[in-house]
Design brief:
The protein has 128 residues and is mostly helical. It contains 5 helices and no strands. The chain crosses the membrane at residues 7-27, 33-53, 65-85, 91-117.
Length: 128
């Protein structure tokens, strides 16, 4: 139960940094909210690979590697988008720093979720 509470706290802190980067009166630009799409998309390749993989199959390793590659691309894009916005003067650099901090916390929370609930025990995310 403590893991679930700490993951919820981490997600809330990460979203708070994202919202601060958008809604503070000195920034007041909501372009960084596009990283929410990356938060939703990042676990999908790995979840699909975990469903399709068979540990005895040689092809399963390639499927896992492709899923990790796609997830890495999504995560790098989530970190790159605020930097591109800041370089294009759509957002301020302070907002970019807040969004990057939020990205770090959110992706650490997603990683923590898969580390805590990723095993095949009685309470697993695969049941959902």
């Amino acid at each position: 139960i403590y893991a679930l509470i700490s993951l919820s706290f981490g997600g809330a802190i990460g979203l708070m940094f994202l919202m601060l980067g958008c809604a503070l009166p000195i920034y007041n630009q909501y372009w960084p909210l596009f990283v929410l799409f990356f938060y939703v998309l990042s676990p999908i390749p790995y979840c699909i690979a975990r469903r399709l993989v068979d540990d005895t199959d040689a092809m399963s390793n390639a499927c896992k590697e492709l899923a990790i590659f796609l997830t890495t691309g999504i995560v790098v894009s989530a970190f790159g988008l605020p930097i591109v916005f800041a370089r294009a003067h759509l957002i301020e650099w302070g907002a970019c720093a807040l969004v990057l901090t939020g990205n770090t916390v959110i992706f650490a929370t997603i990683l923590g979720f898969f580390l805590v609930f990723g095993s095949n025990d009685d309470f697993s995310w695969q049941q959902w």
